[in-house]
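hey so u asked for the seq, here:
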Amino acid sequence: MFAGHAEDNANEQVAIKIFKEGTEDAAKTEYNAARTLTQHGYRHVVPIHAVGRNSDGRRCIVMARAEYDLRQYINISGGLEITATEQRAIKHQVVRDICNGLTEIDGARADLKPANVLSHKHVWKLADIGAIGFTPEYRAPELWRHELPSMETYDYALGCIIYDLLEG
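ran it, structure tokens below
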């Protein structure tokens, strides 16, 4: 759950993710991953500025605010007045940036779906690193069998995203 936005010390907008009550176990995993990410300057992962607890004691993550997500881009891209060549170039860049992000997180869990691929400073970046859940439409068969995720899990989700990009 996102609770509005603020600005950091560099006057950049940030988003604040506050975890719902009753989701402590799931929140802890994502929170711990976010705490680790604050120590890295990954180019293809949404920057995490801080982790902590809000005044109600719920875990929260302060991250860079993105311009838009891939789901929004897919929904509007058909209405954009750009050439087919430009659309192909953008789609190639999206896939390249997602692959680079997956390489950077090196096996960390992520809920890979268009809503978690964010455009930030003209680069597509991954969000929700450490998330335990996987969105059903992008969930690989092994996860339905309650097996642990692997890189193939993310290959499957990436394939679904590529299909979304191609078909809109």
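The CA atoms of residues 68 and 119 lie 6 Å apart. The first strand starts at residue 2 and ends at 7.
lmk if thats what u needed
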